Automatic annotation (TrEMBL):
GO biological-process terms attached to the record: ribosomal small subunit biogenesis
Listed GO MF terms: GTP binding; GTPase activity; metal ion binding; rRNA binding
Binding of Zn(2+), residues: C289, C294, H296, C302
Organism placement in taxonomy: Bacteria, Bacillati, Actinomycetota, Actinomycetes, Streptosporangiales
Encoding gene (name): rsgA
Entry protein name: Small ribosomal subunit biogenesis GTPase RsgA
UniProt cross-references to SUPFAM superfamilies, sorted A to Z: P-loop containing nucleoside triphosphate hydrolases
Top-level EC class as recorded in UniProt: hydrolase
Length: 365
């Protein structure tokens, strides 16, 4: 295999440092018997990808049908792949191992397809800056995405040294992050970083808007300035998109860090289970509603509205739940429309093929 000249991922790292384990080895056995080589995709571009193997980093070519027309199926950072060596040329990506987890958002083009941001992630760090006003709705949205992925979310409040009352902020965020560790940190002073390191395991992805301090946090975890950071505008607390691609980096204490670009939009895509986790208290209350299909919008015997009226459930929380459910249902309906269209296209193709077959047979008689 031809090795790239990247110094970052050269040995002494092995696939085990990138998360390879016995289960992956067993899943890979048929590919190994076919002469293929295991690799983890570090970054994916159009037409090729950078992947780490047990002998170093390689640039591999992607087959033309790598995504089968579905961006969600396209190779992405974190995927485990089977590469076919090619004498005197770059290896070719032959197959992807089944993903254990996948962080998926609605595609930026707002099509009916989802876009996989990262694959085979164990921990999703939802970064929330304390240097800007807290936006509970955005935190709920990112948590829904994290829960839906199948990974474990951890909320990390960054820039605590720039916040007048970090304890109050932590209490506020904890209200919308039930069942999730909410950690207060400052990359500037080092506050909370030991606690954070202890809470992370496996492949860790940093998720959050530009300016949330993800790259600075990542550099502290790495113990060196490997990730590009940029200044934040004072007017709105937003940062420039200094991370333009996704990259996998082994952590000194074990585990792998995956840094993602700051996302301007994190649209939900088929995240119903994630929403049920984030709004677990509403789902629990809904079990006592008179109607099983209650929309909590004025129906008689609605236990959720009763809880709002009694002050046990904030109105803002119910409003956020409804808003994200509507968005998710809309995304699901677009997917259904696409599937119906795909089925109709397939049906027409079969009909055309049958007609052509009958015409051919007719000419043979």
């Amino acid at each position: 295999m031809s090795h790239s000249s990247h110094p970052h991922h050269a040995q002494p790292y092995s696939l085990a440092d990138y998360g390879w384990d016995g289960a992956y080895e067993r899943a890979f056995a048929p590919h190994r018997a076919d002469g293929l080589v295991p690799a983890r995709i570090v970054r994916a571009d159009r037409g090729s990808c950078e992947a780490v193997t047990d002998t170093g980093t390689v640039r591999a070519d992607l087959p033309g049908n790598a995504d089968h027309g579905d961006p969600q199926a396209a190779p992405c950072t974190g995927d485990w792949a089977a590469l076919r060596p090619v004498a005197g040329a770059a290896p070719v990506l032959h197959a992807l191992l089944e993903r254990r987890t996948a962080l998926v958002r609605a595609s930026a083009s707002r099509t009916s397809h989802g876009q996989t941001l990262a694959a085979n992630v164990d921990t999703v760090v939802v970064a929330v800056s304390l240097a800007a006003p807290l936006k509970d709705g955005r935190t709920e949205r990112m948590l829904a995405l994290a829960w839906e992925s199948g990974a474990r979310p951890v909320v990390v409040l960054t820039k605590a040294d720039l916040c007048a009352d970090p304890v109050a902020a932590q209490a506020q965020v904890s209200q919308v992050a039930a069942g999730v560790d909410v950690l207060v940190t400052s990359a500037g002073t080092g506050q909370g970083l030991d606690t954070l390191s202890a809470a992370l395991h496996g492949t860790i992805v940093l998720l959050g808007p530009s300016g949330a301090g993800k790259s600075t946090l990542g550099n502290r975890l790495l113990g060196q300035d490997r990730l590009a950071t940029g200044a934040v505008r004072e007017a709105d607390g937003k940062g420039r998109h200094t991370t333009s691609s996704r990259e996998l980096l082994p952590l000194p204490g074990g585990g792998v860090l995956l840094d993602t670009p700051g996302l301007r939009a994190i649209g939900l895509h088929d995240a119903r289970n994630g929403l049920e986790q984030v709004f677990a208290e509403i789902e629990h209350l809904a079990q006592d509603c008179r109607f099983t299909d209650c929309a909590h919008a004025g129906e008689p015997g609605c236990a959720v509205l009763a809880a709002v009226g009694q002050g046990r459930l904030p109105q803002r929380r119910l409003d956020g739940y409804r808003r994200l459910l509507r968005e998710n249902d809309h995304a699901a309906s677009r997917t259904d429309e696409r599937l119906r269209a795909d089925r109709e296209t397939t049906r027409k193709d079969i009909t055309r093929h049958l007609r052509a077959t009958y015409r051919f047979r007719g000419r043979q008689r």
